[in-house]
Specification:
Length: 505
Amino acid sequence: MTLARTRLAALATSILAVLLITAGQPALAVVKDAPLPAAFAKAAAASDVPRDLLVALAYAETHLDGHNGEPSASGGYGLMHLVSNPSNHSLEKAAELTKLPVEQLRADDEANILGGAAVLRTHADALGLDETARKDPGRWYQAVAKYSNSSSPEIARLYADAVYEQLGLGIDTRGVQVKPQEVTADRGEYAKTRDLNAQAAVASPDYPPAAWVAASTSNYRVSSRETSYNIDRVVIHVTQGSYAGTISWFQNPSAQVSAHYVVKSSSGAITQMVRDKDVAWHAGNSTYNNRSIGIEHEGFVADASWFTDAMYRASAALTRALCDKYGIPKTRTGIIGHNEVPGATHTDPGSHWNWTTYMNYVTGGGGTPSWTTTVDNATSGQFTASANWGTSTYSTQRYGADYRFADPVSASDAAWYSAAIPTAGTYQVEVWYPADAGYNSSAPYIVATSSGNQTVYVDQRAGGGAWHSLGTFSLNAGTYNAVGISRWTSGTGLVIADAVRISRQ
């Protein structure tokens, strides 16, 4: 839905600077290591930016981790990922707006948040958001997209959608909380932009479950593998940045780096950027570039929160397919980390990467569950949904006699599966759904874990007619709504509720 908006003349940068400084000094004194909740509140007030939106943007960029002032792969610093590279100078812009030194903006959390808020506000001013409009987080969508400085409108939309998804899900990390909330995003000019998560996205030519977004031709070498070189390695990387940011960076001619595939943390979505036959510049070693396929994983080496089960499983499925296709051994000889490339100066994927779990998924290992239960949408007394959920027998990929469907909306209207969990412990949760091009590109499954609800996004356009793992979760004992599927998503297409299976190994 696109809201009507009043376009006012953009406020001059000097006016914003007045809000932030008094007599040449920052209006809000920056205190080293100030608690993050106070830092976000202060920055939001200084630049008149919705506080929860500011947190969601920071979370999408860095999971609220400043990484001790170390830069991302694209030269971004701090919680707000203020960037200094040939095509993006948001760090320098933040210094101009806040009158704070670049060194402080890089390393100090509160200063960095102040800078990020100030930069975001300038984008809102350029879009003509007046005081009333600025109070509605949904009206900031285009400003968030501009903040990304993405290489194309498609990537800018991918970035902004990730931020707004976090508002719908809520955030609770590092002492900062954002409650789940309904926000109608005004996409404005991006409403007609190709949605890389939707059925209109171009499929990967080498791995159909992935989307295709080409890297800049300045960042890889055209080749004819396996005629010119044999492919005998898969190299595992960590992006040191966000999913959308990495895709944008690989499209930037000045990057001089690329990888064949990029994997998203929250959902395991995959984008291919360089054809398998071509040589991506990812390993820092020309011999290994010639012989390998590089897979980048969204996140930062030092932060384990990025390495989700959805990411492991999606990446492992890709690696397994590559190994089968090119005869690569499914061992730690054929599948290596960037840090294991001869002469490597990088440490990724790092100590938080779980090689045991990953290789187990690659080889298809597992165990016989000691307990399992399956709940279908027709299971008496164990499935609940409002009248907004219709019933269909359209797809032959369904589990059982039928399945349920509903349009996506910005509202809490989940369908729930109840299960009798025998004892507290760790359980695998799997879902079954029929796939169709008109089904949801980012269906949010909710798991009621012992530490609170966790959400895993699933692309219901593909992979249907089989059990799809959401991951392993800690569940409490008892009979309760254990798994749900929400209609609250920025994805497109009908949300499908069919069956779930919960198992304990």
